[in-house]
Amino acid sequence: MEVLRQLRGYYQARLNYLVLSILCLAAATGLGLVYPMLLRKLIDDVIRPGNYGEVVWIAAMAVSVVAVKALLQFLHGFFGGRLGNYLAYRLRNACYEKLQFLSFRYYDTAKTGDLMSRLTGDLEAIRNFVGFGFAQLLNLILMVTFGSAVMLSIHWQLTLLTMITIPFLAGVALKFESKIHPAFQEMRQALSSLTTAVQENVTGVRTVKSFAREPHEVEKFSHRNERYKDNQIFAATLWSKFFPVMELLASISVAVLLAAGGTLVIKEQLTLGDLVAFFSLIWFIIGPMWGLGFHINNYTQSKASGERVLEILNQPIDVKDKEAAVELDPEEVHGDVRFEQVTFAYGNKMPAVVDIDFHSSPGSVIGFLGGTGSGKSTVIQLLMRAYDVNKGHIRLDGKDIREISVRSLRSQIATVFQETFLFSSTIKGNIAYGMNNVSMEQIIRAAQLAKAHDFIMELPDGYDTVVGERGLGLSGGQKQRIAIARALLKNPKILILDDATSAVDMETEQEIQSGFQEVMRGRTTFIIAHRISSLRHADEILVLNEGRVVQRGKHEELIDVPGPYRDVYRIQYADHLDGAGRREGEGNA
Ligand SMILES: Nc1ncnc2c1ncn2[C@@H]1O[C@H](COP(=O)(O)OP(=O)(O)OP(=O)(O)O)[C@@H](O)[C@H]1O
Question: Which of 349, 369, 548 to mutate to test the pocket of ligand 1 (most atoms within 8 A of CB)?
């Protein structure tokens, strides 16, 4: 119930639906009790005394009771459905919104499949419980209470006698649920591993075939399939035992009622009408036992689902705006970036960058070179405020970026990542992602600068060509050029190229870079690259190793001194170097 309380804000506005749904169900249950009472009246007051005139009235009342009950049941479903869907709708939106603002740190460990199941399966469980399960659970209690109250009022000794099997019925139902529940969980897991196998096989079909691992894949699938089949058989066997056992126990109650009730009627201590009413009323007690385990399990499951959804909603956002966060005026941003003794570690790991110190004046180009894991991307992530620094300051135009609103800071930065993500949309839509009011001319201009225009025009629908999920159907280089066009269209003060030209050939890289010369003008640009060719025109190059700056300077200066930069340079230009280790016509030999 604690979970329901915490979720209250999301259904508070429709609390009346919850109340109405419960009231309608309770009223329908109450009306259900009228039916056995009518039977009793029909037998004792109409049939036995021979009051034929009242038969029609009793029949008419029975029909009316059923009709009103049906209406109440409809209203219960109507209000419950409205409430459940309203709650699920609000929670879905709230979770999705929260996911947009959760920081990079959260996504470092989040699992896509798990998040998807929280937003679908778990929300569905909550919707069902709040919409119906909760009312049904209450109704179950009401049925047993109302039913036994009426039975007790007719003949309390007979009531207690016929209820003799009820504890056993409840026990069997609970025991069954405790077995079927893990069996279903196991079955869901088996099914999920089966679908994962199919999905991986289809996605990785090239790897499977190139390693000739088809037989292994078939065997792997067959094992998982067998596990699923065994689980299904186990669950089916449980089900096949449950109903006969419940039926058997219930019929004991009925038999006891027949024997004891019949005797009482013969002894005239009970009327025939009472006995018939008892036969009807006993199902008010036995019926709920059938669903007891299901409803309790439904409750525990939706409680667990509620906790999983609340975990997302209550997740703290570690990079967020301060109360008096500054909103940048795009016209006034110069792009002066300063790192002052910046140190940062991911979680409890060793620091990924240590004491990083540099200054890039507006419009300058800073290059980063370093081996895998040397901290290049981390520096850039810190500048975007994907994470906040542990020590030191990062300043934009003299202002610590922690003082600036995250949104307005990022609106001044455009990044082209090593891996391009394209949405399932048109090329045009992908270039103009997140921007309204951009003209087709602007989109084409950006694509031309990114050297993407020509290949786009060769596509069947040009800029209106729909690219599949993750840009399926385009080469790595083409995707990257679209990403570059997207960044250029944003017209940022700070441009970040995180290994942006790694997927294009040297020739295209040069073409793109000559385009960059123009678009970089007036923008502070950070280039992370593995190729010296991408960095040679930078105003300053920082060489990183294990998170520290180990060399810095211009290309011409760095190739003149021994160190990692010159080593990389020599490896990359081995075929073109003169005897002094310089490219022909380069440096001041
Ligand atoms: N999200 C993360 N969570 C934990 N550790 C991380 C994370 N990202 C990077 N690291 C660690 O931080 C260090 C620096 O990584 P970073 O990605 O900045 O290096 P890089 O120089 O950009 O490498 P590459 O050239 O391979 O992209 C590495 O030791 C890496 O394992």
Answer: 349
Answer positive or negative: Cα dihedral of 281, 285, 291, 296.
Answer: positive
**Ligand 1 mutation pick, 318, 346, 372, 530, max ligand atoms within 8 A of CB:** 346
**What is the overall mean pLDDT for the chain?**
85
**ipTM reported for the complex, 2 dp:** 0.96
Nearest CA to ligand 1 atom 30: 373
Name the residue at shortest CA distance from atom 26 of ligand 1: 372
Distance from the CA of 373 to the center of ligand 1, in angstroms? Answer: 5
In this prediction the pTM is: 0.72
> Taking the CB of residue 149, how many other CB atoms lie within 10 A of it?
13
Ligand 1 atom with the shortest distance to the CA of 370: 21
State the closest ligand 1 atom to the C-alpha of 353, by its place in the atom list counted from 1.
Answer: 14
398 CA from centroid of ligand 1 (Å): 27
Residues facing 549 on adjacent strands: 544
Rounded to the nearest 5°, which phi and psi values hold at 114?
-65, -45
Distance (Å, whole) CA 566 – CA 212: 43
Alpha-carbon distances of 221 from 206, 210, 235, 346, rounded to whole Å: 17, 19, 21, 38
Q: Quickly tell me which residue has 């219930």 as its tokens.
A: 250
Q: What does the pLDDT read at residue 589?
A: 35
Please give the distance, rounded to the nearest whole angstrom, from the Cα atom of residue 352 to the centre of ligand 1.
7
pLDDT score recorded for residue 582: 61
pLDDT in tens, 233-261: 998 898 888 888 888 988 888 899 999 99
What torsion, rounded to 10 degrees, do the Cα atoms 283, 289, 295, 296 define?
Answer: 150
The set of protein residues with a Cβ atom below 6 angstroms from ligand 1 is 108, 346, 349, 352, 370, 372-378
The DSSP code sequence of 107-118 is: HHH--HHHHHHI
- Is there a contact between 391 and 570 (Cβ–Cβ < 8 Å)? no
553-to-358, 549, 560, 564, 565 alpha-carbon distances in Å? 11, 11, 11, 13, 10
Q: Is 494 helix (H, G, I), strand (E, B) or coil?
A: strand
* For the CA of 368, the nearest atom of ligand 1: 21
- What's the CA gap between 330 and 457, in Å, rounded? 33
Q: How far is the CA of 484 from the centre of ligand 1 (A)?
A: 23
CA-to-CA distance for 410 and 399, rounded, in angstroms?
Answer: 15
Q: How far is the CA of 105 from the centre of ligand 1 (A)?
A: 13
Alpha helix (H) residue ranges in 450-582: 453-458, 476-489, 506-520, 532-535, 555-558, 564-572
Question: Measured from the CA of 530, which atom of ligand 1 is nearest?
Answer: 25
Helix/strand/coil percent split, the chain, to 5: 65, 10, 25
Query: What would the pLDDT profile of 198-215 be if each residue is shown by its tens digit?
Result: 877 887 888 888 888 889
